[in-house]
Amino acid sequence: MISEIYPVCIGLTAVAITIFYLRYKKTNPWRIFLWAAFILYLTGVICVTLFPMDYTNTVHEDFIIWENTLKPIPFNVISQMFHEKILIYILVQIGGNILMTIPLGIMLPLLRPGKKKWFYPLFFLCFTVAIESSQLLIGALLRTFYRTTDIDDVILNFTGAMIGMLIYRLLPQKFKQRFL
Q1: Which of the four pLDDT bands, split at 50, 70 and 90, describes residue 63?
Q2: What are 131-157's pLDDT values in tens digits?
Q3: Residue 159: pLDDT over 60
């Protein structure tokens, strides 16, 4: 089993290098803080979505793998949860996937202001598809399929990022200028 310690160490190293570099460039301290927070956020997303990687439990029946791993029908898993009335799973699945990407929707425009209107939604979509694709690819490479690849997660993650973008737009201009 590959644990979360590896991405945490890499994330902390990236934070240290980023802080050192931005301090050397005499960057605004608020911007340095935001970059450090963003890197830690991305590290957390990687830890939650990809780790721990279980490479010890291999599966050999391909038809079982795809049936249990790939969920390409939108809202199918969520509707099953509502039908089976699994409240805690509904809250974790829907709430967790939305909450996970709200910081992305707030921090990315603060770090990269002035982009075209289509840039952020396209980035958010690519980000969420990359997470789900990584889970599928890692499972295929390790032959374990320890995670499911669910279109619902893409939709919920994208929704969370767009909610974050809305929160960003509601922030006072004075607050946004602090990070320039």
Answers
A1: very low
A2: 999 988 887 787 776 777 889 899 999
A3: yes
Residue 33's identity, in one-letter code, is F
What size, in residues, is the chain?
180
What range does the domain containing 40 cover? Answer: 1-52
What b/e readout covers 67-87, taking b as 16+ CB neighbours within 10 angstroms? Answer: eebbbeeeeebbeebeeeeee
Tally Cβ neighbours within 10 Å of residue 52. Answer: 13
40 and 69 share one domain: no
* pTM (two decimals): 0.85
Q: What is the 3-state secondary structure (H, E, C) of 112-145?
A: CCCCCCCHHHHHHHHHHHHHHHHHHHHHHHHCCC
Of 54, 71, 51, 55, nearest to 5 by C-alpha is 51
Which tokens hold the place of 165? 């973008």
**Rounded to 5 degrees, what are φ and ψ at 116?**
-60, 155
Domain count, the chain: 2
* Predicted confidence (pLDDT) per residue in 96-137, tens digit: 999 999 999 999 999 999 889 899 999 999 999 999 999 888
